[in-house]
Amino acid sequence: MKTLGQGSLASIVKIILDVVWYLGWVLLSFAALVLLAAAATLVMDFLGYSPGVVTELFQSIREHGWLFPLLVTEIIAFMIVIDRLRRISSTLIAGDPFVPENAGHLRVIAIAIAGYQVLRHVTQGAVAMLLTMMDQPVLGGLELTATANIDLGAWFAVVALLVLAEIFREGAKMRQEQKLTI
């Protein structure tokens, strides 16, 4: 099977990325709706109104709604990576992978992964702190400890993507110089 061009492995990957892209939008929309419902329950609490018909649903949203802003930001980071991979695979289908834009796409993917990793650490700390402040047990009965749980694989991927971005940038520059050579 071909790796570049129409009907290639790159076109199959592009189709899979397109499906994941649209599923990500569905998930993001659902998370945003739950976030709006959580905001509505806060307003209802402030006004002293308690809905009767969907009390259990609103109670669940009230208890766990604070997780959804974190989920939305993680979904957005995921969507950025998927979007950039879709753009890269489009150049692969066109048969021209060494375009200057691909270097930028790889850089953005590396930054999104790094941002996600930082966000993951911040959110884990914030969730543990909120649970402790609200006198609720931490899930699984674990105690709060100051251990660093760094995902070395993800940080290696960030560095590797930055290196690949530079390789693509140099490859595109060399290709442009080759086109100008007689």
Strand content: under 5%
**Number of domain modules:** 2
Q: CA-to-CA gap between the ends?
A: 34 Å
Order of helices and strands: HHHHH
Task: Give a quick account of the main beta sheet: strands, pairing sense, barrel closure.
Answer: none
Give average pLDDT, whole number. Answer: 79
Gyration radius, in Å = 22 Å
State the total count of DSSP E strands. Answer: 0
Number of helices: 5
What would the principal axes of the Cα set say about the shape? elongated
Oligomeric status of the shown chains?
Answer: single chain
Low-confidence stretches: none
SS-based structural class?
mainly alpha
Task: Classify the helix fraction into a percent range.
Answer: over 70%
Short description:
This is DUF2975 domain-containing protein. Helices cover 76% and strands 0% of the residues.
